[in-house]
Amino acid sequence: MSVxxxxxxxxxxxxxxIDNSQLPKSPLDIGPLFIGxxxxxxxxxxxxxxxxxxxxxxxxxxxxxxxxxxLWRRAxxxxxxxxxxxxxxxxWLTNNSPATVVRLLGREHTSATAAGKAGWWTAQxxxxxxxxTHAVAATAGGAFGLLLLDSxxxxxxxxxxxxxxxxxxxxxxxxxxxxxxxxxxxxxxDQGTVELSGALRGAxxxxxxxxxxxxxxxxxxxxxxxxxxxxxxSAHALVETVxxxxxxxxxxxxxxxxxxxxxxxxxxxxxxxxxKNYWLGETFDRMVADNIQSGSVAGDMYxxxxxxxxxxGTNQISNFRMDxxxxxxxxxxxxxLGREEEMEASxxxxxxxxxxxxxxxxxxxxxxxSITDIKASTSIENEFGTFAVLVRKxxxxxxxxxxxxxxxxxxxxxxxxxxxKRRIGDRYQEFDSTSRRNKTYGEYDNNSKxxxxxxxxxxxxxxxxxxxxxxxxxxxxxxxxFSFLGTGSVHNIGDxxxxxxxxxxxxxxxxxxxGAEALYTPITASLTNEAGALYFHLGATGSESLEPFYLTxxxxxxxxxxxxxxxxxxxxxxTDAYWGFDTGRSVSDLTFDESNLDIVRPKxxxxxxxxxxxxxxxxxxxxxxxxxxxxxxxxxxTNGNINPQKGEAATWxxxxxxxxxxxSSLSTGSTDGYKAVLNAGFNKFTMPVxxxxxxxxxxxxxxxxxxxxxxxxxxSETDYAFNSVMEAIDSVAEPEDVEYNLLxxxxxxxxxxxxxxxxxxxxxxxxLAVIDIPQVYTAKSENTSTFKNRLGSVGAAxxxxxxxxxxxxxxxxxxxxxxxxxxxxxxxxxxxxxIAAVGAMSFSDRRSEPWFAPAGFNRGGLSNGAAGIPVISVxxxxxxxxxxxxxxxxxxxxxxxxxxxxVIFGQKTLQVGASALDRINVRRLMILIKKQxxxxxxxxxxxxxxxxxxxxxxxxxxxxxxSVQTRLGLEDFRVVLDATTTTPDLVDRNIMYAxxxxxxxxxxxxxxxxxxxTRSGAAFED
Length: 1022
Prior knowledge:
Layout: E1 32-36, E2 47-49, H1 52-59, H2 84-93, E3 99-103, E4 120-121, E5 135-136, E6 142-156, E7 177-189, E8 193-199, E9 210-213, E10 218-219, E11 227-232, E12 238-244, H3 254-257, E13 278-283, H4 285-291, E14 302-308, E15 319-320, E16 326-328, E17 332-334, E18 352-359, E19 367-375, E20 386-393, E21 403-410, H5 420-424, E22 428-432, E23 437-441, E24 451-455, H6 457-460, E25 470-474, E26 482-484, E27 512-513, E28 551-556, E29 579-580, H7 596-599, E30 627-629, E31 633-635, E32 650-652, H8 663-666, H9 674-679, E33 685-687, H10 720-731, E34 742-744, H11 751-764, E35 768-771, H12 787-790, H13 794-804, E36 811-815, E37 818-821, E38 828-831, H14 833-847, H15 856-859, E39 871-874, H16 880-888, E40 892-897, E41 901-904, H17 920-938, H18 947-966, E42 970-976, H19 984-988, E43 995-1000
Parallel strand pairs: 1-3, 1-34, 5-27, 7-28, 29-33, 34-35, 35-36, 36-40
Antiparallel strand pairs: 2-3, 4-15, 6-7, 6-14, 7-13, 8-9, 8-11, 10-14, 11-12, 16-18, 17-25, 18-24, 19-20, 19-33, 20-21, 22-23, 25-30, 26-28, 31-32, 37-38, 37-39, 40-41, 42-43
């Protein structure tokens, strides 16, 4: 303590104790680094894990590849193929610590070709509708949306005809109606169509009622909004007929009867008998429940299926070819402060948003964020109020919140230690394609396991009013609500395929299917009053003689549900309710509505899913109804327009403040009406997390399967999966960025990628690459062959490795694959041998030392637990000749013996020439010694280059090497550091030069014993 810190008042002696005896913190232990898929977790950046329980919390349990269910809502193919990196981490962490993991997601190259784009899509022909017929070939494919119309909203049209849209000559409006409806579901189709089948709206009683088609109004066939759909192929032939409804408890529930597994479209990995040409994507159950009141009996409502695309087909709704992106909360908005120019929430500035650490979509399907304890400042000296941020489980309820993290007493003062960016943190990493390494950005370390904070630059610069508090948020972008325009005047909200203002645009949303069942075509016209709306003439075509029917329908697009009343959900104390995002199935049913998982998904390529852009095709333009704010709460007093006292109920209606019908707009004072809201106890709201994307092709069981790559043809520019693995490897190539002593990409056998793994290990000089090689076994997720036909052979594996001419003592390989037991699910999994190898190395390190051979029955007995996870079989039992062939080729055999079990029976590196470094135990010894002595040398760096410093260095190195020798790592050693090594000319060049001579202890790999049989009476002493 400085003398200035003492408080001298009266004479005396002042004592202070300073503890300088603390031992310096020892460097962190170093373990392996694994690259591969995991269930969840930080993506494309190295994350250090200290235990398997830590791994499960961060990255999730390993996936065995047999999990079924609704795969569309369970991250696509992430549950269809084993996550080998996760099993490798388990194998290591069972006996040792730490391990570093890099989770793979989809990243395309900055110069990616069309074929090299990340993400997924469904095959679709070019848009063919150029004239008024709007015909699209039957091979169309793409995305098909189900529109449901609420019969309880039907109104007969009047006799007046909208002059802007004249009727065809001789036709009347007697059969015209006005209705409202909702987008209820989306199917994604490869080369085919989805069509409703049933009684046609508009047909006369004498005409056949059973019709099938798209863009045709079809009656429901039963209760629970039941319909019949026909799936057709590219030739318009019937593939599947499905009856479905929207009752979760029914065997015909929509998500139970349709295919929800996108991998079944992939003929490369799916048997022909199981192939589908479609899957059911989003369904919007709450939107249907809230907006469609009809459908309780057959024939009391109508549905229509339309192809979803934008104008001209430039941006297809089934095109999700884009990079992985992190999920985010919406931008948080402040309260109104009475300024006329800020009456609408859209005009208020952004404050901050939270950005997920965990790349991809997992967070948006797992958590939500609440802002609570919002308090205005009560101090003249400090104008900034406070608030708290809660990270909650997405499926919890407001009555029983499950809080995963809490950050309290936060503020928006950049100079405060409680500034939200300081408390939560804002650091993140991004891969720089030029330097080929990860770069770190941000000012403050992250204290949240889930999020970092992104603040508005003006807020960070102190430019905003200190009174600002978090008071609301932008809702996630949604498709436009839209209208079909019949005859009669109706407000057009927007449409699916034209930007507002295009008065001469032709309608293309209702894509009619060419062929015998293409019954209807729209009539196009110059739509001067209702720009971009659709005018449907559901009239006769071909030989049909149907009476004309006209429909005007306003279709609501799916969006998140927002709490409308403080009593919703059964709250007796209104202030207990969280406003904003409502995740329940209805206002009375708090059960989590799984369709929330679909609403928060990102929008397709061409439509920015994370921000609003006014006028963007298909997504909502900015209006006040796209914002939630506590400023729009209204009280329950007289006429609902008084400032409620604390404890009174409240309602939320978008735009109430702008209409001077809210608590804050009616309170006394033009600038502090928001305080009335807070004083009433309404001080918390909840936001969704949305827009996360894995960037993977969800039609692949394993997006990183080796069989999709071709030697000499596949590059980072032509294949996003290849590029993703290459970026992950390059991001850990720099020793100063991340430390590890083993490097493995389990399951990846593609030569170009494993060559890069070995190159990185050798260039760094501080890690052993454990690679998997081809021609050993092909995983089930790679192709459709039988188990027998996926087996490799010793000869093929040896030949393939010899053809590569590898000479690298920083790498090793094993044969064959092993069968392991998943300790969580109890299933069995075929796993690459690299997993067993790193498990044995972990076991060997724990039982002995890194310089002991991780092989043999003592340290390589896989049946006895040396792998860290149960190993119960191998793909091939090796003969003695097989083991000889493999070992000659520098491939380490994994042998299976009848009595002794499965054991690693070799420990060679991939070095060609015979030396001490052609053995794994010696290479690992040298890696450890070099790393430790490098750290010791760093402690004398920049000290004086004199004998005293040399002696300090010798005083650290020699005891360390002696301890290694004592523990059987070295037979002998010698360290030379004197004037013979560090000569005067080196001193003048600021160089200290030491020589270290090592004689590694060798392992026993061959035992020769002579048994001599002697005659009776012979003495052994002879």
